[in-house]
Amino acid sequence: MHPFLKLFTQRRVIWDGSMGAVLQSQGLTGGQQPALWNLDHPDRVLAVHRGYLQAGADVVLSNTFGLNPDEFPDTWETLVAEGVRLARQAVAEAGHGFAALDLTGLGKLLRPWGEQEFEHAVSLYDQLASAGIAAGCDLIMLETMTCLREVKAGVLGIQAANRRLAGESPLPLAVSLSFAENGRLLTGADIEGAAAMLTAMEGVDVLGLNCQNAPKALIPNLKRLIACADGLPVLFMPNAGIPELRDSRTVFLTDPEAFAADMAEAAALGVQAVGGCCGTTEAHIRALTRAVADVPYIKAVKEPKNGLAPCRVSGHSQTVTLGERPVIIGERLNPTGKPRMKQALRAGDMDYLKHEAAAQLDAGADLLDVNVGLPDLDEAAVLKQAAEAVQTVVAAPLQLDSASPAALEAALRGYIGKPVINSVSGKQSVMDAVFPLAKKYGAALVALCLDENGIPDTVDGRIAIAEKMIKEADRYGIDRRDLLFDALTMAAAADPAAPTVTLVTVRRLHDELQVKTVLGVSNVSFGLPNRSLITASFLSMALRDGLSAAIINPLDPQVQSAFFAATAALGHDEGFARFIDRFSAVTLQAVSAGQAEAAAKPAAEAGSVSGAIIAGMETPAAEAAVALLDKGLPPLELIEKHVIPALTEIGTRYENGKIFLPQLMQAAAAAKRAIAEATKRMPAAEPQADQSVVLATVEGDVHDIGKNIVATMLQSYGFHVVDLGRNVPPADAVAALQKTGARFLGLSALMTTTVPAMRDTIALVRAQCAGPVKIMVGGAVLTPGLAKEIGADYYAADAMASVRIAKEVLGKG
Fold first, then answer.
1. R_g of the chain, CA atoms, integer Å
2. What is the mean pLDDT of the segment spanning 350-375?
3. What are phi and psi of 46, to 5 degrees?
4. Is the pTM for the entire model greater than 0.85?
5. Distance from the CA of 148 to the CA of which of 135, 211, 450, 494 falls in 20 to 30 A?
6. CB–CB of 437/412 below 8 Å?
7. What are the distances in angstroms from CA 727 to CA 708, 747, 757, 780, 792?
8. Is 324 helix (H, G, I), strand (E, B) or coil?
């Protein structure tokens, strides 16, 4: 065991605090990337490391936070090497501790919502980790992460470097996420879904929560993380409260003693590692070390490997727990027997798949199976494309369905969350190919009760294969809780005894092996009339016998009714809530009126502009807009009566927590397509200054995510956006305002060290721009109070707040 990980078997581990906070307290800001201090002020960086180690820290983070090889192509390797060298030197001098390579987000949102390609992000993290390992770091820290897809890119890149350079003795990896107080990442993932992915992925050794706020405010999130860490040590590194700007420096309001007292409370909850993020100084860590010294240490313990215990799977912003109650896996994203689906796959028509996906979820599906297997397609490329397309409009988890390991891996790499793989059989060659993929990428598995000899005719034969697969999965470190065993549904018309064998196998899998089960239910009725009746009856019996997940057509009302009725009758529907919701008088009236099918389909299928925007369907939005324009609807009326109301509705859903950033961004993209069609029918005109917004990330800050989201939303509302990019000097912001005549400026900053640069930009705009300019600020470190202190007119907490402010300032809508 690595010495760092061995420490967790003995006692609580102490992390350091904020490098930037200490150096800023010494007057060292300079409006530059903090890693440059490794070259410009190595003595001061070294002194900070020494101070934290003397204060009691076991881990010091290299001063490499925020480095991106794309931003510093000529110096990044030197900056990483120097950052690690200084941390190692401090550890060597102290005679104790570990030097961690500190990495974070790359500053750009990944596709499909941003401009960064997933595989390029993987490559950048590989490069950074490789440089850190070569420089001699003891472990790697990936921290303050806000996008689950970027987290995956980071872990995969670091894994690749670790395997290549460290071989059979990989360096430990700690991954720490920055959840807002609502328990969501910026891109919508909840704590349980993110933990599900990371606890299942290969190579993650510590799971953390850092930044955002003071300890007290984050305790609810911490409790949730501890509950789903599944045996991984938990790290807690909150900020020293909410900052203010005093004497040109960012000052945090939680003093060392108050911080330490709250951290002692956190430690008592069962945290295995503690430290500090923004604003925490050597004094905070010294007080923290004293405060937790007498708090009993609770080791991280993995839950017993009982297959009936809950298993979480997740999409980008929705988590489903398998094993709590039976779930529906929608089967309709499969070309078998579906000519229209085959046509869509061959034509690359991903909008059709999005429609089908949304319809199944509206009808009650919990997960969606995605299968693109056609003999004339590049299955690896198309399965990857299909999964990514569906995830742009669907928050729920997906089941990636293929017999091709290459296709599965292609789809697994960029998948956001923890999916299900459908499937692996008991054939040794298949297990050898698929089990490593499930372990590497973090996935649950459908395990088929068949092997080299085919499907056994007997229950005992199928149980024997399941037992063999459990042992093989354990050899790969795959928890049996992540296995869903398929007892295999055969056609009753071919063998009337087959359904009974399947049902008895389900019961024994559930009772004797204590594992979860899944069935493709509709196979039972193949070749018979009134298939829905047979399928519904068989489904009810399977649920009685312990079925965990049913792969069915959720748009079949008879089968769906059987599912909800059986789960309610069997006690899996507390208070009959789901059953009543489905079959209340209002719902039954809709059914009797023949409206059920229409109600199950997304509004986009009706061809409306607003429906397509709300559903996030770009091509249908453009097509519906063209249809209305061709009928004579004035372009401005299209925008005012169809686009803006749809955006208002989607904005309300976002603010009410019914949807999250991915759906918001996709709706904005669809709105932009509709507006583009309207613009083509308008006379050419120069952008109007009174509808222009200048946006910039301030000097010294290279993080573009928040600003780019704001730009997308403002453009979707028809504002003209002048985006100056990142690391923008104050004079450039002034020049852009003067050139465009714009009277509205939006400024973004992520790092505490760049808040003074934001203040300087505001001051220069006030001094040099003729006429009033309203200034809006936002970013992770900003607060309403801090915005007021630095002279801003408005503080925007998120992209929708930016839209409201822009409408107020510029009088639009």
1. 28
2. 94
3. -60, -40
4. yes
5. 135
6. yes
7. 14, 11, 10, 16, 19
8. coil
